[in-house]
Amino acid sequence: MAYADINGARLWYEIMGKGEPLLLHHGYTACRENWMPVAERLQDRYQIILMECRGTGDSEDTGDGYNIPQYSEDVIGLMDHLGIGQLTYAGHSMGGGMGYWLGVHHPERLTRLILMAPIPSGGTSGVNHEQIDRNLAARLEGNRDYFMQQQLAGKFRDDVQTDAWFEHRVDQLMRVTETHIRGGAESMHSLNLESAIEQIKVPTLMLAGAVDGLLNANLDDFRRLPEATLQVFSWAGHDVAIHEPDGVAEAIDRFMQHGAFTAATLMNRNG
């Protein structure tokens, strides 16, 4: 692991393996751990770059910059720091919203784009300030049981959603800075790229969970993307890489090798 000073923030990152660069970015209240099972499966084929945005994980808590445009610019800043001109970017949830932003504003820096259970390109439905206040109050009290009950309500995979995994998930929720929680929520709500993503020509892979409340939004955005392929995992919720690490790793590897292969691609090839 290492740190880099990027756009006024000391950001954590780690590089695993060698080969074509593939950057994996976490979601809103998560950290590198939500991608780690997939990173471990792909590190023998690609140069995996993990990073954590300001206010999360082991990255610095800064006074400002808690919004999708800044998080995305931090990705570009890390690429510059590492001397990487282009790479494949993979983002989960809020990180997928960053993927939309990068695809619209920095397509020249991307070879491919992977969106795993991304937030809607037109923004989330709203910001529940009362819920955020309750969560922050519980965290101030050190009330881990409050967060554990929330997390256990979504359990359906005993094989991968272990007690240890839930304890670590609560650790993440207890650590994320308040400015990231509030700023990130506002930024996800205000994202407005529905029309813009129709112009993304970077080959794109959409990964979705059939047990995820964002599935319909993911399908709608998939239809907007002109050069995209889709895989839906029937036994996965929002944490797709945790629920289906083998399937996600295989889908990414296939996409890295063959691009956005679709029915139109097949017709053009055989035409």
What topology emerges from the helices and strands here?
Elements: E1 2-6, E2 9-16, E3 21-25, H1 36-42, E4 47-51, H2 68-82, E5 87-92, H3 94-105, E6 110-116, H4 129-140, H5 144-152, H6 163-175, H7 178-190, E7 204-209, H8 215-224, E8 228-233, H9 240-243, H10 245-258, H11 263-270
Parallel strand pairs: 3-4, 3-5, 5-6, 6-7, 7-8
Antiparallel strand pairs: 1-2, 2-4
Tally of individual helices: 11
What Rg is obtained from the alpha carbons, in whole angstroms? 18 Å
Main CATH class: Alpha Beta
Principal-axes geometry comes out as: globular
Order of helices and strands: EEEHEHEHEHHHHEHEHHH
Q: Estimate the helix proportion, in percent.
A: 40-55%
Strand content: 15-25%
Strand order of the largest sheet: 1-2-4-3-5-6-7-8
CATH architectural category: 3-Layer(aba) Sandwich
* Arithmetic mean pLDDT: 96
Let me know the CATH homologous superfamily. Alpha/Beta hydrolase fold, catalytic domain
> How does the helix and strand content classify structurally?
alpha/beta
For the largest beta-sheet, the strand count, sense and barrel status come to: 8 strands, mixed
Number of domains: 1
